[in-house]
Amino acid sequence: ELSSDVVSQFGENYDTADCTMKKDFTDAANGLVGGFLFLGIFLGIIFTFAAALIIYYKQLSEGYYDKDKYEIMQKVGMSIAEVKQSVRRQVITVFFAPLIVAGIHVAGAFHMISKLLLMFTIDDTKLLVGCTITTFAVFALIYGLVYLVTAREYYKIIRR
C-alpha cells in the first residue's frame, strides 16, 4: 500500500513515476559524464600537442645555439658518430625526462583520481589502471614520434 504523500505527489501511477525519475536521473548523469569525458579528451589532446610542440621548438632553437659548439667539438677531433650520439643523448634527456616525471606524477595521484571518479560511480580499479596505462602509452607514443622528428631536424641544424 502506498503512503498518502506518495499518492498525492505522483498519483496512483507511482511505479511509472519512479521509472520516469530513474530515466531522467540516468540521462542527466550520462550527460554529465559525457561532458566531462569530452572535455578530458579534448583538453588532453590539446595539452599533449602543445607540450610536444613547445619541446620541439625549444630543441630547434637550442640547435641553432649549439651549432657552433658541435663544430668546435668536431674540429678538436670528435667524430661525426660521437657528435650524433651526443645529440641523441641530449634530445632524449630533454624529451623523456618530462615523460618520466609525468608517469611518476600520475602514479602518485592515482589514489586521488580513483576517489574523484567515485563521485561518478566509477569504482572499477582494473578499468582505471588499464585506462591510465593506455593513456600513458599513447602519450609516450606521441612523444616518441615528436622525438624522432625533432632529433632529425636538430641533427640537420648542427650539420649545416
What secondary-structure arrangement, pairings included, does this model have?
Elements: H1 4-10, H2 14-75, H3 80-118, H4 125-159
Helix pairs in contact: 2-3, 2-4, 3-4
Overview of this structure, please?
The chain is mainly alpha-helical. Helix content is 89%, strand content 0%. The protein contains four helices and no strands.
Counted by DSSP, the helix tally is: 4
Which range does the strand content fall in?
Answer: under 5%
The average pLDDT score comes to 82
Main sheet properties:
none
Number of strand elements: 0
Radius of gyration: 27 Å
Broad structural category: mainly alpha
Compressed to H and E, one letter per element, the order equals HHHH
For the terminal residues, how far apart are their CA atoms? 89 Å
Shape category: elongated
Helix content: over 70%
Low-confidence stretches: none
Short description:
With 160 residues, this protein is mainly α. The chain is built from four helices and no strands.
Structure keywords:
single chain; mainly alpha; 0% strand; 160 residues
